[in-house]
């Protein structure tokens, strides 16, 4: 009597079982990647570190991926671009220098862009031909869409041709939805932090100017407005910004005070 084959042998002999196992593994990779998004410590990572983490999780979530990049669109700053591998940096540098490629199209159209032969893709002829010479042939670019609009795009690349099938694109889209929220939250936090720094700088500058005004008033008499006018005249004469002139007056006053104290000891 023949021996009963074990489960692995049965799977090898059954293409449907192999495909089912592969799909289950891909689904688990997607679930773990999405779960990892929720654990990102937004307050502990700076914006670029968080974006790199999102791109890294995308490589795990999308079957066939060799590397990924993420482009964050910001109105008040230059676009922030991060990558998970040097070859992705080279690809994206070509893409943004030409302003042509799947990421540009995905961000503009808010639609997923997929290609299995970039070198022959007529949608991006200049980009595709140059990238193919780098040995990169497949791409899937996913817009990061939120209720307020597109905040960026996730670009996933592979060296092989036809690396991303329709299922890979669908898994990418499932990942891109929570990824967009994570990116938007990180962007909002970074903008709030920048605003707080700007406000603090403004307060510090105002305090420095007030100190300089007080010093001028104690030296020369007059009103606060007259001291401020003197500061402005000095600023124009020295071709320096008002805070710089105020800082120099305060620094000079501190040096004089220290010299007097040292002489009196």
Strand content is: 5-15%
CATH H-level name of the largest domain... which superfamily?
GAF domain
Largest sheet: 5 strands, antiparallel
What is the name of the CATH architecture of the largest domain? 2-Layer Sandwich
**Individual helix count:** 9
Overall number of domains: 2
**Shape type:** elongated
Give the averaged pLDDT, no decimals: 84
> In terms of structural class, how would the helical and strand content be classed?
alpha+beta
**Computed Rg:** 29 Å
**Cα separation of the termini:** 109 Å
Any idea of the CATH topology of the largest domain? Beta-Lactamase
Helix content: 55-70%
Low-confidence stretches: none
Largest sheet: spatial strand order: 2-1-5-4-3
Q: SSE order in H/E notation?
A: HHHEEHHEHEEHHH
CATH structural class of the largest domain:
Alpha Beta
Oligomer: single chain
Commentary on this structure:
With 265 residues, the protein is of the alpha+beta class. It has 2 domains: 178 residues, 2-Layer Sandwich (Beta-Lactamase), CATH 3.30.450; 68 residues, Winged helix-like DNA-binding domain superfamily/Winged helix DNA-binding domain (Arc Repressor Mutant, subunit A). Helices cover 63% and strands 12% of the residues. It has 9 helices and 5 strands; from the N terminus they run H-H-H-E-E-H-H-E-H-E-E-H-H-H. The chain has a 5-stranded antiparallel beta sheet with strand order 2-1-5-4-3, with helices on both faces. Helix 1 crosses helix 2 and helix 8 packs across helix 9. The radius of gyration is 29 Å and the shape is elongated. It starts with 6 loop residues before the first helix and ends with a helix. The model has no long low-confidence stretch (mean pLDDT 84).
């Amino acid at each position: 009597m023949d021996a009963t084959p074990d489960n692995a042998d049965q799977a090898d002999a059954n293409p449907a079982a192999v495909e089912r196992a592969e799909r289950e593994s891909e689904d688990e990779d997607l679930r773990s990647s999405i779960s990892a998004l929720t654990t990102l410590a937004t307050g502990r990572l700076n914006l670029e570190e968080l974006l790199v983490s999102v791109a890294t999780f995308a490589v795990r979530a999308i079957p066939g991926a060799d590397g990924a990049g993420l482009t964050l669109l910001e109105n008040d700053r230059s676009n922030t671009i991060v990558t998970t591998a040097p070859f992705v940096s080279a690809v994206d540098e070509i893409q943004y220098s030409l302003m042509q490629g799947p990421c540009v199209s995905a961000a503009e159209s808010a639609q997923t862009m997929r290609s299995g032969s970039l070198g022959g893709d007529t949608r991006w002829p200049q980009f595709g031909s140059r990238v193919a010479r780098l040995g990169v042939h497949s791409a899937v670019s996913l817009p990061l869409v939120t209720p307020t609009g597109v905040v960026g795009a996730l670009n996933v690349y592979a060296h092989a041709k036809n690396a991303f099938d329709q299922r890979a694109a669908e898994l990418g889209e499932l990942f891109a939805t929570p990824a967009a929220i994570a990116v938007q939250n990180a962007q909002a936090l970074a903008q709030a932090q920048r605003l707080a720094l700007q406000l603090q700088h403004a307060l510090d500058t105002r305090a420095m100017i007030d100190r300089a005004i007080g010093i001028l008033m104690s030296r020369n008499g007059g009103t606060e407005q007259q001291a401020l006018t003197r500061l402005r005249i000095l600023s124009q004469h020295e071709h320096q910004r008002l805070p710089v002139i105020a800082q120099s007056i305060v620094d000079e006053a501190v040096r004089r005070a220290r010299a007097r104290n040292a002489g009196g000891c």
